[in-house]
């Protein structure tokens, strides 16, 4: 996802610090106090412009959603969307997901969504894929015992790679769909990329995987 440099982004994020957590490491093990309730926490990695997280937060008011997005020029759009949605159960983090353990304690997150993650097709970039085993180690640590990863993509190679990576890590595959939209899942919330690719007629893949804890 490309976005132009936005020189006003820093000020915008500071003004919206009720939505963007500017010091997320301060909340490690304490996210429940941020939301002021005991609802489960779901995490989206690579939130993009925020369509999925706002849609999910409207649909599941008894869940708290946290979105992490590395690109400042992109997260500003998500912040605006969250603000417009007036949902109190969403927070955003402008950081790299490689440092997840600095932001979340053990068993603090119930579900992790990987939506249309960058595929990094070159093998020398394998370590950057969000389903690479160093990421899986972090997910295992922060997820609850029955926690789950839900991955959606249009990219067949990334999908296959992720299924193999999950299996090699000893995870259980709870669902594997090769054409999500054929299933008519009424609870599916589309991301920006999902809309774009499905309009072009591309199949959307989805899998759900869990760690055997
Ligand atoms: N999830 C959105 C969707 O489905 O429409 C956006 C998909 S876009 C292809 C991938 C997003 O993940 C980009 O916004 C990118 O900046 C973000 N991203 C990539 N690597 C990341 C990382 N290590 N930590 C946090 N965000 C990341």
From TrEMBL:
It catalyses: guanosine(46) in tRNA + S-adenosyl-L-methionine = N(7)-methylguanosine(46) in tRNA + S-adenosyl-L-homocysteine. Its EC number is 2.1.1.33. S-adenosyl-L-methionine binds at residues 44, 69, 96, 118. PANTHER family: 3-DEOXY-D-MANNO-OCTULOSONIC-ACID TRANSFERASE/TRNA GUANINE-N 7 - -METHYLTRANSFERASE, PENTACOTRIPEPTIDE-REPEAT REGION OF PRORP DOMAIN-CONTAINING PROTEIN. Pathway: tRNA modification; N(7)-methylguanine-tRNA biosynthesis. Catalyzes the formation of N(7)-methylguanine at position 46 (m7G46) in tRNA. It is an enzyme of class 2 (transferase). Substrate binds at residues 122, 154, 191-194. HAMAP family: tRNA_methyltr_TrmB. One of its GO terms (molecular function) is tRNA (guanine(46)-N7)-methyltransferase activity. Keywords: Methyltransferase, S-adenosyl-L-methionine, Transferase, tRNA processing. Residues 124-129 are annotated as: Interaction with RNA. This is tRNA (guanine-N(7)-)-methyltransferase. CDD domains: AdoMet_MTases. InterPro entries: SAM-dependent_MTases_sf, tRNA_(Gua-N-7)_MeTrfase_Trmb, tRNA_methyltr_TrmB_bact. GO terms for cellular component: tRNA methyltransferase complex. It comes from the Bacteria. Belongs to the class I-like SAM-binding methyltransferase superfamily. TrmB family.
């Amino acid at each position: 996802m490309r976005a132009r440099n936005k020189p006003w982004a820093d000020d915008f994020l500071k003004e919206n610090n009720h939505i963007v957590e500017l010091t997320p490491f301060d909340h490690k093990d304490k996210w429940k106090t941020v939301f002021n309730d005991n609802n489960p926490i779901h995490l989206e990695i690579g939130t993009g412009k925020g369509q999925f997280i706002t849609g999910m937060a409207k649909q599941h008011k008894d869940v708290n959603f946290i979105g992490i997005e590395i690109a400042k020029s992109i997260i500003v759009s998500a912040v605006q969307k969250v603000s417009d949605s007036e949902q109190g159960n969403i927070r955003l983090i402008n950081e790299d997901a490689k440092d997840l353990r600095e932001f979340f304690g053990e068993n603090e997150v119930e579900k992790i969504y990987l939506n249309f993650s960058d595929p990094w097709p070159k093998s020398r970039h394998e370590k950057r894929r969000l389903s690479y085993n160093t990421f899986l180690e972090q997910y295992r640590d922060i997820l609850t015992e029955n926690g789950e990863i839900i991955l959606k993509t249009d990219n067949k190679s990334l999908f296959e790679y992720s299924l193999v990576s999950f299996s090699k890590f000893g995870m259980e595959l709870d669902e594997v769909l090769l054409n999500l939209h054929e299933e008519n899942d009424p609870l599916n919330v589309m991301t920006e990329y999902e809309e774009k690719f499905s309009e072009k007629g591309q199949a959307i893949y989805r899998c759900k995987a869990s760690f055997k804890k």
